[in-house]
Design goal:
Elements (H helix, E strand, L loop, with lengths): L21 H17 L22 H21 L1 H12 L7 H12 L8 H37 L1 H32 L7 H16 L4 H30 L9 H35 L5 H15 L2 H26 L16
Helix pairs in contact: 2-5, 2-11, 3-4, 5-6, 6-7, 6-8, 6-9, 8-9, 9-10, 9-11
Membrane topology: Multi-pass membrane protein
Function: Transport of phosphate groups from the cytosol to the mitochondrial matrix. Mediates salt stress tolerance through an ATP-dependent pathway and via modulation of the gibberellin metabolism.
Keywords: Membrane, Mitochondrion, Mitochondrion inner membrane, Repeat, Transit peptide, Transmembrane, Transmembrane helix, Transport
Length: about 350
């Protein structure tokens, strides 16, 4: 069973690795050398490489602020960079007759709108997914600890995957409210040429046409897409990282370099992203259809797409896109956390040791 210390921080240490501060490390090495000398044996040549020394306490306000900033950057940057892929994907979902494949979709867009047209919708993408990422990652860390504290040490370890699922679902409910208005404008800008150049003129046009309530018309299908997506994303990532360290890279926790940890983060994120894409794809098709067609309903969308199209239209592109996106997101997220003085996910010191 996992070890626990402070009763206010009950997340078991299977989530994180032990922390060895540089000061304690020095004392350990000195004491170990003295012990070897006093026993008549040669001094030890072994050296334990410590994890990066934290500058902020786990689960403190500064820690949550760092996670929020890291989530904002990771989601905002990655989603904006793949705007051309997202543009093709959305148009393939809306008009598969015209945009028959990835290559032909790019060809049609380049011919009709030029190279600049491939960046259409980048502004609502940047702002919307930055807001979503801030809420998604920041609240995930909060809810993960909150539910672990409620469960207690024994059940927190026994039902760790349920805690990942519950924490990520709770965070995503909040995150999608922040994303929804920008997603609505993004899809309209990307799939209706001539509607608007971007966010600055697209937002007021959308509100004038459908009112402020129209900005949240896609919230329910967005929840249907993003909540399962995020649950799979975080639960798969956390478990995949643990399995990689246990079976593939059995490097002792205290000897893991930052580059190794970030490599594992990318691998775990990519695997999680592929599963996310498959699970959430039907709802993604619904979101694109509803935000493109004024006054359309979910039943009309399903009838138009067909059951097979609902699950498959644009799926190959989305698998590649989301797999790469999610892997990159975890690398950026963990890199920013390290920059702020927090350890990477899956390699942080045990919360039972930290003062929350």
């Amino acid at each position: 069973m996992a070890s626990f210390g402070n009763s206010t921080s009950l997340i078991p240490d299977f989530l994180y690795s032990p922390h060895v501060s540089s000061r304690n490390l020095a004392l350990m090495n000195v004491n170990h050398g003295d012990a070897a000398s006093s026993s008549g044996g040669p001094p030890s040549k072994g050296f334990v490489i410590p994890a990066p020394s934290e500058k902020i306490e786990l689960f403190s306000p500064k820690y949550y602020a760092a996670c929020t900033a890291a989530g904002m950057l990771s989601c905002g940057i990655t989603h904006t960079l793949i705007t051309p892929l997202d543009l093709v994907k959305c148009n393939m979902q809306i008009d598969p007759t015209k945009y028959k494949s990835i290559s032909s979709g790019f060809g049609v867009l380049l011919k009709e709108q030029g190279l600049r047209g491939l960046t259409r919708g980048w502004a609502p993408t940047l702002i919307g997914y930055s807001a979503q990422g801030a809420c998604k990652y920041g609240f995930y860390e909060y809810f993960k600890k909150y539910y672990s504290d409620i469960a207690g040490p024994e059940y927190a370890e026994k039902y760790k995957t349920l805690i990942y699922l519950a924490g990520s679902a709770s965070a995503e409910v909040i995150a999608d409210v922040a994303l929804c208005p920008f997603e609505a404008v993004k899809v309209r800008v990307q799939t209706q040429p001539g509607f608007a150049r971007g966010l600055s003129d697209g937002f007021p046009k959308f509100v004038k046409a459908e009112g402020y309530s129209g900005l949240f018309k896609g919230l329910t299908p967005l929840w249907g897409r993003q909540i399962p997506y995020t649950m799979v994303k975080f639960a798969t990532f956390e478990n995949t990282v643990q399995m990689l360290y246990k079976y593939v890279i059995p490097t002792p926790k205290e000897k893991r370099s930052i580059s190794l940890q970030l490599g594992v983060s990318f691998a775990g994120g990519y695997i999680a992203g592929v599963l996310c894409a498959v699970v959430s794809h039907p709802a993604d098709n619904l979101v694109s259809f509803l935000n493109n067609a004024k006054g359309a309903s979910a039943s009309e969308a399903i009838k138009n797409l067909g059951l097979w199209g609902l699950f498959t239209r644009g799926l190959p592109l989305r698998i590649v896109m989301i797999g790469t996106l999610t892997g990159a997101q975890w690398v950026i997220y963990d890199s920013v956390k390290v920059f702020f003085g927090a350890p990477p996910t899956g390699s942080a010191p045990a919360p039972s040791v930290a003062k929350a």
